[in-house]
Amino acid sequence: MELLAFGDTGWGDELFRATLMTIAVSITAMLIGFSFAAIFTPLKLSKFKSLNIIANIYTTVIRGVPELLVIYLFFFGGSGAIMFVASMFGYNEYIEINAFVTGSFAIGIISGAYSTEVFRGAIQSIDKGQFEAARVLGFSKFKQFYKIILPQMLRLAIPNLSNVWQITLKDTSLISVTGLVEIMRQSYIAAGSTRDPLFFYSFAAVLYLLLTFLSMKLINKLEVKYSRGY
Amino acid sequence: MDFELMINSFPKLLNAAVITLKLLSVSLIVGLFIGLLFAILRLNKNIFINRFAYGYSYLFRGTPLLVQIFIIYFGLGQIEYLRSTFMWVILKEPYWCAIIAFALNTGAYTSEILRSAFQTIKPGIIEAGQSLGIPNKIIFYKIQIPIAIRQSLPAYGNEIILMMKGTSLASTVTIMDLTGVAKYIISTTFKPIEVFIVAGGIYLFMTFIIHNVIKFLEKKYSFN
Question: Which distant-in-sequence residues (6+ apart) come within 8 Å of B132 by Cβ?
């Protein structure tokens, strides 16, 4: 138990901070994923074939290639890509992006592909009459979406989004390969310096279980909130 | 774009893909048995057996695969007792540790898939079997299991693809699978995009094949 003490003698405070880091990366990645989904879901549902193809390539490639490979692409290629863009604007210094940004982007792109599919499914399962009714009522396009389609879509999407959240949360453990100190990395460091890997990795497993358990509780509450009236 | 590197690295990556496929197939076969066993335990009326099976699947589905591999590879070796038993022959090899972790992980997901498949079988089908005087054991093996397998094919197909992506984690315990070799080439040449295209292409090709095989099986075993 003294291994988990807070302060200089144990790893309690380090692991606590690492847990917060895992939560921070997961939420950032999820939000980045939502912004990708906001771009690609309309493309998927668009009438134009070429736009459909672009969105399909995104979701198929990301869902068919291991997460770890995507993370390596960002880890090794991230600063190169940023420097290339910067050099077009005449900035030629070396730029290093930190592990948090690389990690959240890599996981965010992965989570975005899953979210895109979830949102597409949700919009497609809304009754056609709802779209027509929105149009008949004379709402502007923007209002049609925000007042009528979005609330119904969220209700249908939340159960599946909770799966995406679970996947995203667990995927953040892979960022440890880039050196970002989240639960997995911190356990690796602690296991290395105390020579007690069994304890620390089991403790990491407990932390992840706790996170998934608590987030499920929260999401269930959201689900109840959004299915009012059903 | 460095096309020469892409062409040169292709055979190396293809060789590594064989290891990925080996890891995948062995862990899927073992995982299927584990999954079937735990699905049956889940349907047991005894609350302790039931809870045990649920706990197993909750534990393995609620934690990242990476943690599971690390516990088995780095953690179990720490137990002195295990080092003296025959288990140590297996546990000191990263290859077998990875397979144990993958099999236990996919077993947990498979048990959930099979359980829900068993639960969707209409009671009328089982009653029909009983009224024909077929013993319960045979009803289970000859009626319930085949229907459950067909019912769970689409979900199991997804699980195979997820597991294929999961095998990439074997590279974290020094196994040179497709991702391991890809990472090695990236870190020696610093050409991540080229290597990603080739390695990702191989993964996508495997996904494509698995997807189509499952589709074919679904068609073959459908009612109509």
Answer: none
**What pTM was estimated for this model as a whole?**
0.89
C-alpha to C-alpha distance for A200 and A4, rounded to whole angstroms: 9
Contact B208 A197 (CB under 8 A): no
List, for residues B76-98, the tens digit of each pLDDT value.
Answer: 888 877 777 777 888 888 999 99
Can you tell me the ipTM of this complex?
A: 0.87
Which chain A residues touch B if contact means CB-CB below 8 Å?
A: 60-61, 63-69, 72-73, 76-77, 80, 166, 170-171, 173-174, 176-177, 184, 187-188, 191, 195-198, 201-202, 204-205, 208-209, 212-213
CATH code of the domain containing A85? 1.10.3720.10
B108 reaches A (C-beta below 8 A): no
Tell me whether residues B67 and A72 touch, CB distance under 8 A. Answer: no
Which CATH superfamily hosts domain B3-220? MetI-like (1.10.3720.10)
Where do the domains of chain B lie?
Answer: 3-220
- Count Cβ atoms below 10 Å from residue B51 Cβ, excluding itself: 13
